[in-house]
Input
Amino acid sequence: MNISFRNIFCTTSSRFKIFGISVLAFSLFQKETTAQIDPWQAISQMQKGINLGNTLEPPDEGDWNPPAQEYYFDLYKETGFKCVRVPVRWDNHTGISSPYKIDETWLQRVETVLDWGLERGLFVVVNAHHDDWIKQNYTDSNMRARFDSIWSQISVRFQYKSEKLIFEILNEPYGLTKAQNDEMHQRVLSIIRKTNPTRIVIFQGHNWGGSDELITAAIPGDDYVIGSFHSYDPYEFGLLGEGTWGASYDVAALKNKFISVKNWSDLNNIPVFMGEFGSVRSCDYNSRMKHYKTYVELAQNYGFAYCAWDNGVLDYSDDGLGILDRARQKWDEVKDILIYSSARSPANPTLTVQDTIIKLSWTNMVTDNDSIFVQRRILNEDYSTVARLKGDTTKFDDVNTFPNIYFYYRIIAHYNSGEEIYSHPVRILMPVYVPRERQSYLGVSATIPGTVEAENYDIGGEGLTYHETDDINIAGAYRPDEAVDIYDRLGDGYHIGNAVPGEWYEYTVNVSHSGEYIINIMLASLEGGGKFQVKIGEVESDTLIAPVTYSALNTASVSTIMNLNAGEQIMRFTVISLPLFNIDKIVFESPEAVEVKKVENLSFTIFQNQDRELVLISDTKSPIHLIQIYNITGSMIYSLTDPETELKISTSVMSPGIYIIRAETARQMFCKKIVIN
Output
């Protein structure tokens, strides 16, 4: 463009004429030499958005909310939002006959609100919102001309605004067919391009502008467009507040929606703006928080900009989607999900109550954080930090509780650099504490000697009669409402499975008389080697070791001898270490009973001779087909099938201590303890 700046000073009349041309030239030159933001760059910078809802889109501003205030945008900026979507209704402020002029006062008011955002460096999206007249009367050429005129006037008025001002042609075009919606977007886009050749424009699919409609919409032939969809799915939860949300199938269904849009975006090289999403405040609280968190995480994972709907009021009595109480300048905790959460956030925060303790657990998604902060609030208080823990901590017990009140918690992965990554918050009602009572599962104490089935631990619940590391009975074959994993032994009763270190089970037992008892614990283990301990009253066994049975169902016995006190007492079975083993039952025999059987059925003698050999002598009338020797930890150190009637076993490799000799005939079993010197 060749313009001589010398001519500016020629004459008064020509000076002003040429000066105007020169300013225009300078403006155009400046625009040409400034890098134009493209849609992909815009989407990457628009992350974390919020709607100025229920404000400029009622019939008149102030009908649903107080008029917009400039300080709203200070709050948006300070909080960390990058984008504000400003829904605008044009109908009541536009002439109904040609040239369909927009009222200047209204146009100026909209411009003022948009400038509040632009002046603070925010992206601002302006649209036509609740203009149902065009959707309901689209076949009327006068209505189409009126809508075209509105966008022509908007385009002319705002053509020199920052490139961070984005036009969105029509919100949720419900009432238009797909063909009408496609045609309308292309026509209005061509109008916008007359004055705004590179301004970014958002288009939506027909109907309610959902994801399915976006991926079937005609894509305008234009380098500066962004595709948009809205989602409050599932509708019954998100907008009606029914039921709960957050099960694995809920998350999977939502993820599939995002994957479909992502595939469409990649195929067509069109970035994506999720212009509205959320769930009403009357939803189940924990479900609602996870709902927001999942939307944010999926949008971030798939590279979509997201803009939560906010109606500007915090009121749990209504079905609104408030995030900022604008009048009180108070944020709902959803704000922290929108700003601070991601796929790196502590995941799956879970709350349970044990007596007067609230137990909080979570999963860490990062390993390089310096610490974990646990924050809590009650009533309408702000969150405060109640614990600073090591960076790899995954559990916290809150003992400072009060009955009949809701407690809210969130977990923060904290870095010394100042970065903090928030989990979504969760809450739990602390009930009035009622002391729990222990009861024998079968109604009476198990008798010793006798058999205790592992699955018949006492009634009383987590922390009182058993401890499980998770809250779900995975197998659910027996006592499904309790957390212990109980499996069906294919018609042969039940067993406890998935027993991991730290878990325990308690049983009320009644020992008939004081003295030594032989204890045979029936276990199954694919690998063997898992360790456990049995405690009855104050008497503890040594650490015992599960044998390998190469099966989850076929059991083998681990035997030990314990000197028990008579009377009713609590027996606890504690898992100490892996590998996994399954627990079928515990069989108690008194030595006296075994000795009687020996006299009646067996002639079996064992002693240590002067050569430190074990001498075993049996009666050939009752042949023994198996001899086994176990150390006190339950490990088998010797086994012989069909031994001689008189057998000598060297003890040179046996350390001094207590050993258990086990002998079996075809029908009976005999155990005896011996001390090797």
Q: What stands out?
A: The two ends are 110 Å apart (CA to CA).
